[in-house]
């Protein structure tokens, strides 16, 4: 349906159905939302997990960014350790749901005040 985000299972089924060339198709996946999704692939597709974080870190060195923020605990658990070798403030936020579609973001850890911040997150379905 137009306007609906495909699920990991849908993508996995589509890529697993690619024709065989005599060996499995290697699907390069960058920063997969959840690592267990790689097991959705079967048959003719094998996931090759990659990350773009080293490219981001290289860019941060010359950008003046001195704070890396994660909008939720999931992103922080997944990516924050990759920035420990840099001289940046790590900020972890939390999202709370209000009435209807309202959301609030609160800082749980770290202090971004007066800093140049980059937000590291994964894809979102709602954009909220």
Notes on the structure:
With 128 residues, this protein is an alpha/beta fold. The chain contains three helices and six strands. The protein has helices at residues 8-16, 53-61, 73-79; strands at 25-30, 45-50, 67-70, 89-97, 103-109, 117-119. It has a four-stranded mixed β-sheet. Strands 1-2 form a two-stranded parallel sheet. β4 (89-97) and β5 form a beta hairpin. It is flat, with a radius of gyration of 18 Å. The two termini are 20 Å apart. The mean pLDDT is 81.
- The percent range for strand residues is 25-35%
Strand order of the largest sheet: 5-4-3-6
Write down the Rg. 18 Å
Describe the largest sheet: 4 strands, mixed
Labels describing this entry:
single chain, 128 residues, alpha/beta, 4-stranded mixed β-sheet, two-stranded parallel sheet, 3 helices, 20% helix
How would you summarize the topology of this molecule?
Elements: H1 8-16, E1 25-30, E2 45-50, H2 53-61, E3 67-70, H3 73-79, E4 89-97, E5 103-109, E6 117-119
Parallel strand pairs: 1-2, 3-4, 3-6
Antiparallel strand pairs: 4-5
Produce a short descriptive summary.
The chain has 128 residues and is of the alpha/beta class. It has helices at 8-16, 53-61, 73-79, and strands at 25-30, 45-50, 67-70, 89-97, 103-109, 117-119.
